[in-house]
Amino acid sequence: MEKNYPLYLLSTWKIGGPAETVYWPETVEDLSSVWHRAQEEGIPVRLIGKGSNVLFPDGGLPGITLVTTALRGICWGDYTVKVEAGYTLARLAQEAGERGWSGLGFARGIPGSVGGAVMMNAGAHGGEMASSILRVKTLWADGSIKQLERTDFDLGYRYCSLRGQAWILEVELKFQPGDRNQILQTMKENLSKRKANQPLQEPNAGSVFRNPPGDSAGRLIEAAGWKGKSIGGAKVSEKHANFIVNTGEAKSEDVLALIQTIISDVQDKYGITLQTEVESILTGNRGIKEDR
């Protein structure tokens, strides 16, 4: 447990002030116990993963921030795997590929945790988490833990109906037998494309906006003239217009201002309202979503 822990150390955007208390539970039982105590004592408590898709506030966070990255239990089955929320998604994809199991190859370059990937139905290269999920173990706001079958909740494009109600503790995924060499080669090619087209060397949180139906957010933002433009320390990547990078001293308010200005400009020019894909723990405003 750490007091006044810098949130920027928990975010791939490298943005955020001090959290009052940060705790890394090592078991689901430990996490549940801390959650219950916090609830009983009226202490604000939240759950985060690897911070690869989140914007933290400059002023920090009160209460307890639970980080799931130490929850890395895994159990391989017969073309299935049970894995805890803190396991790295890219690592899981690589390990499945090494076994010759098909289904997660799209995820090899996604930097988040398994729990966060389920909560946002992460996807790339035409694949998404929804196609692999069998069931999930969830923590609810009242502290109860429930196991849900895939049919018990909805998943869509960067959408999970559990968001705002529950948090992922563990997920069971299914795979199909495949050609090991072909799976590994495809993942290698996807990583090369990612490296060529995305600003991986600069602090960022992945794609900022969802692609609108039939179009690309990056194309719209570039067409509107935003590529390379900045507000404060936040800059629209010159490599990919749907990425906002931290040039070194970005504040959350810089990122939010840039996001809102882009939304307004694209709306004015093309009549399309961009929806954010990144999450924010600033005010609880669901316009830029909360928690993971």
Automatic annotation (TrEMBL):
It is found in: Cytoplasm. The active site is at 158, 207 (proton donor), 277. InterPro entries: FAD-bd_PCMH, FAD-bd_PCMH-like_sf, FAD-bd_PCMH_sub1, FAD-bd_PCMH_sub2, MurB, MurB_C, MurB_C_sf, Oxid_FAD_bind_N. GO terms for biological process: cell division; cell wall organization; peptidoglycan biosynthetic process; regulation of cell shape. One of its GO terms (cellular component) is cytosol. One of its GO terms (molecular function) is FAD binding. Its main location: cytoplasm. PROSITE patterns: FAD_PCMH. It catalyses: UDP-N-acetyl-alpha-D-muramate + NADP(+) = UDP-N-acetyl-3-O-(1-carboxyvinyl)-alpha-D-glucosamine + NADPH + H(+). Pathway: Cell wall biogenesis; peptidoglycan biosynthesis. Keywords: Cell cycle, Cell division, Cell shape, Cell wall biogenesis/degradation, Cytoplasm, FAD, Flavoprotein, NADP, Oxidoreductase, Peptidoglycan synthesis. Its EC number is 1.3.1.98. Pfam families: FAD_binding_4, MurB_C. The keyword ATP-binding does not apply. Its cofactor is FAD. Residues 15-178 form the FAD-binding PCMH-type domain. Belongs to the MurB family. Cell wall formation. HAMAP family: MurB. This is UDP-N-acetylenolpyruvoylglucosamine reductase. It comes from Desulfosporosinus orientis (strain ATCC 19365 / DSM 765 / NCIMB 8382 / VKM B-1628 / Singapore I).
